[in-house]
């Protein structure tokens, strides 16, 4: 039997050394139980094992129409940069190309395994002429896709062939194929790709109409009977030196260099996994959770691309961009609690580095006030078509930037990095709120109302709840930020006035929160944009009288109209129920995602393209069941499902920059460890019976039933356990039915 040690051996002996890491005794064995396994070959990106390093990405699958094995060569940095077309057609992601492994014979069968611990895929392909064994990974510390293959029998003669893709917008290409209304009649195609080979180096050049270039370069090595395909890709704009960069990356590589790259690659991942640890009795959810942690680090890195709808696994889609009316925000939710804040840094950097573009996105007459805006869809530079405002020709969808600022505020709150607050969060949020202020008006009673704005994908209304919630949160947060930073902003009186006089959220007695004034929720709607005040903003929360009933009524009515309730409708409901302490209901909605729309490899698609944010928001559902920290209180096991008797986690992070570890055994919380990284006030809410401090010098004061103030200073740690009970270890979390207790749930299992 495997042993997952949540607390160290020293802890079991009633002592504790804070510097000692816990988690599994054998991380490789624990992660092997999370691997995805294929008993038959996948036939598309939606079934395939995927790998990435935040910029380059690949997936491997059988391509039925050619009878070959497809190895994608994706680069999330490959964008169009059209100067005169700021639309989703002119500023979107571009396809690059893929390799085909052409066997000598006909592929009969095959198996695959995505090894999460080492972030590599292994496969065995059986043809009518032999077998091909394959191993692939995307190097973590360098720009390479590496595929090793070895043939036996008559398959020693298999071949690699590169297939370039069109450099046109994937949205345009898909529209042509489907003959649908998304076809843009005046779209001008980019020049065709050019491929060549010289001195053993293959190249594919994809020039763009308005400058810039993408280059894919590759070469093949042989070592110990194995054939190694090394691929690199570069995108440069406005310069056109991507070809030089990509060729330079591969030209001097030897098999010995590949071994060094692999060593560094594994070192990176082996350091990534222990940043936090979660063990659940429900192995389907546990598998899903760890795959999302893998997906995050594969999709984005410091210096790499954002997590947009596709990550580095771009395919034909109507959404080849970063979408800001929900998608990107949800993708980044799990980075904070999972203690993987470095994954969130590209999002903060994109805002910090593109303030000028955020200003250029708003109508010129509002720029003098410092207003900033973010359209629904952009490239990684956040530049897009002009943001609509009330009274204009476009719908006034103004909430994308303030919602993004909430993600950045969370990164600040979980890190307490004051430079992030001062240099990025505060100026971006100030500009976002400034765009709202000209459109407030006063009624006869002195109440402030918001002119007609747009609730994403539903419709326009005055006092739109989506925008009222974001405006209220924005003003509150700006005042708090000024206090932290010591800024005497001239707009503080204006923000306070807004908070004092802003109208309440429109609602009705039977159905709860409305879309806006005179606009009830009356048709099926996948977004939960009108319910942001419950989650993630917590403006209405479980500590407020009446909010629980209003949340239940609102979510129940939202889900009462079927038809367009999709994946993130399920995770949105799960998150709201978890934030109010309903663990069983939260788990039920997460399983609705699993049982209806989640793909075999935990990818997700809607209508006409991938949207990877939905499963990532599912990982946040797990976090909210285990640990919450809104409202200045650390809540341990606040919404744990009743079926999860035995649960453990280590070094999950909370607001205020605390690392929290906890063990639940037999349905009772038996141990909590808290470490303060910033010296912020620590208030703990727990169901632990008669907790006492077993390790650490901090004092503890009871504030009320189940609530305690702990006097932790920066760098200090305390361990709590029930009075009179020994500190203990926990074995792997068990307790679900046999059908849900199997490891390696995802992939394609017979």
What does this structure look like?
The strands form 10 sheets. This protein has a 10-stranded mixed β-sheet, with helices on one face. Strands 4, 5, 6, 7, 8 and 13 form a 6-stranded antiparallel β-sheet that branches. Helix 6 crosses helix 18 (613-626). Among the domains are: 38-275, Distorted Sandwich (Beta-galactosidase, Chain A, domain 5); 280-439 and 505-619, Glycosyltransferase (Alpha/alpha barrel). The relative contact order is 0.11. Residues 1-21 and 735-741 have low confidence and may be disordered. It is built from 18 helices and 39 strands. Strand 23 and strand 24 (459-461) form a beta hairpin. The protein is an alpha+beta fold and 750 residues long. It is 28% helix and 25% strand.
CATH topology of the domain at 280-439 and 505-619: Glycosyltransferase
DSSP summary: helix tally: 18
Question: What does the radius of gyration come to?
Answer: 26 Å
**Which runs of at least 5 residues are low in confidence (pLDDT < 50)?**
1-21, 735-741
């Amino acid at each position: 039997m495997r042993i997952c040690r949540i607390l160290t051996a020293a802890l079991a002996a009633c002592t504790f050394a804070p510097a000692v890491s816990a988690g599994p005794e054998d991380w490789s064995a624990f992660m092997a139980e999370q691997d995805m396994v294929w008993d038959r070959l996948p036939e598309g990106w939606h079934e395939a094992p995927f790998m990435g390093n935040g910029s380059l990405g690949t997936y491997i699958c059988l391509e039925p129409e050619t009878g070959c094995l497809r190895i994608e060569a994706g680069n999330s940095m490959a964008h169009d940069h059209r100067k005169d077309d700021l639309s989703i057609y002119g500023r979107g992601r571009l396809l690059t190309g893929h390799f085909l492994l052409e066997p000598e014979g006909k592929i009969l069968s095959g198996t695959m395994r995505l090894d999460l611990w080492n972030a590599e895929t292994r496969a065995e392909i059986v043809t009518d002429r032999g077998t091909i064994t394959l191993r692939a990974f995307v190097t973590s510390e360098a720009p390479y896709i590496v595929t090793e293959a070895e043939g036996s029998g008559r398959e020693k003669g298999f071949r690699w062939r590169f297939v370039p893709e069109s450099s046109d917008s994937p949205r345009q290409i898909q529209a042509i194929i489907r003959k649908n209304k998304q076809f843009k009649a005046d779209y001008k195609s980019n020049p065709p790709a050019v491929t060549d080979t010289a001195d053993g180096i293959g190249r594919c050049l994809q020039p763009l109409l308005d400058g810039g270039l993408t280059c894919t370069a590759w070469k093949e090595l042989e070592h110990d009977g194995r054939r190694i395909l090394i691929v690199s890709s570069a995108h440069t704009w406005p310069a056109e030196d991507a070809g030089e960069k990509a060729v330079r990356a591969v030209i001097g590589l030897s098999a010995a260099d590949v071994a060094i790259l692999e060593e560094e690659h594994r070192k990176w991942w082996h350091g990534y996994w222990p940043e936090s640890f979660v063990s659940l009795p429900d192995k389907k959810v546990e598998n899903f959770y760890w795959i999302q942690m893998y997906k995050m680090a594969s999709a984005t890195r410091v210096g790499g691309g954002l997590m947009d709808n596709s990550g580095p696994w771009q395919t034909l889609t109507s959404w080849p961009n970063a979408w800001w009316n929900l998608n990107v925000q949800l993708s980044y939710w799990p980075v904070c609690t999972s203690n993987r804040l470095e994954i969130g840094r590209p999002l903060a950097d994109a805002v910090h580095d593109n303030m000028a573009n955020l200003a250029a996105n708003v109508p010129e007459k509002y720029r003098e006030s410092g207003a900033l805006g973010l359209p629904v869809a952009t490239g990684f530079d956040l530049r897009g078509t002009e943001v609509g405002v009330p009274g204009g020709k476009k719908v006034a969808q103004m909430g994308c930037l303030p919602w993004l600022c909430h993600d950045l505020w969370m990164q600040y709150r979980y890190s307490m990095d004051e430079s992030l607050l001062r240099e990025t969060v505060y100026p971006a949020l100030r500009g976002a709120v400034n765009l709202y202020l000209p459109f407030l008006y006063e009624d006869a009673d002195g109440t402030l109302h918001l002119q007609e704005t747009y609730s994403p994908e539903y419709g326009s209304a005055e006092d739109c709840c989506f925008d009222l919630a974001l405006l209220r949160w924005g003003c509150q947060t700006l005042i708090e930020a000024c206090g932290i930073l010591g800024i005497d902003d001239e707009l503080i009186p204006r923000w306070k006035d807004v908070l004092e006089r802003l109208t309440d959220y429109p609602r009705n007695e039977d159905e709860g929160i409305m879309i806006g004034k005179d606009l009830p929720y009356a048709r099926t709607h996948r977004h939960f944009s009108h319910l942001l005040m419950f989650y993630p903003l917590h403006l209405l929360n479980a500590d407020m009288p009446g909010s629980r009933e209003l949340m239940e009524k609102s979510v129940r009515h939202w889900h009462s109209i079927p038809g367009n309730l999709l994946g993130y409708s399920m995770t949105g409901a799960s998150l709201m129920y978890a934030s109010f302490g309903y663990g069983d209901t939260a788990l039920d909605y997460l399983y609705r995602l699993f049982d209806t729309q989640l793909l075999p490899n935990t990818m997700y698609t809607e209508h006409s393209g991938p949207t990877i944010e939905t499963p990532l928001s599912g990982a946040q559902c797990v976090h909210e069941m285990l640990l919450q920290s809104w409202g200045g209180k650390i809540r341990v096991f606040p919404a744990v499902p009743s079926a999860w008797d035995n649960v453990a986690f280590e070094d999950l992070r909370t607001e205020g920059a605390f690392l929290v570890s906890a063990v639940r055994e037999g349905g009772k919380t038996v141990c909590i460890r808290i470490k303060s990284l910033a010296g912020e006030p620590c208030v703990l809410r727990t169901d632990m019976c008669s907790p006492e401090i077993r390790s650490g010098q901090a004092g503890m004061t009871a504030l009320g039933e189940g609530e305690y103030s702990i006097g932790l200073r920066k760098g200090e740690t305390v361990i709590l356990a029930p009075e009179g009970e020994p500190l203990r270890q926990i074995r792997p979390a068990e307790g679900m039915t046999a059908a849900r207790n199997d490891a390696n749930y995802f992939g394609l299992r017979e």
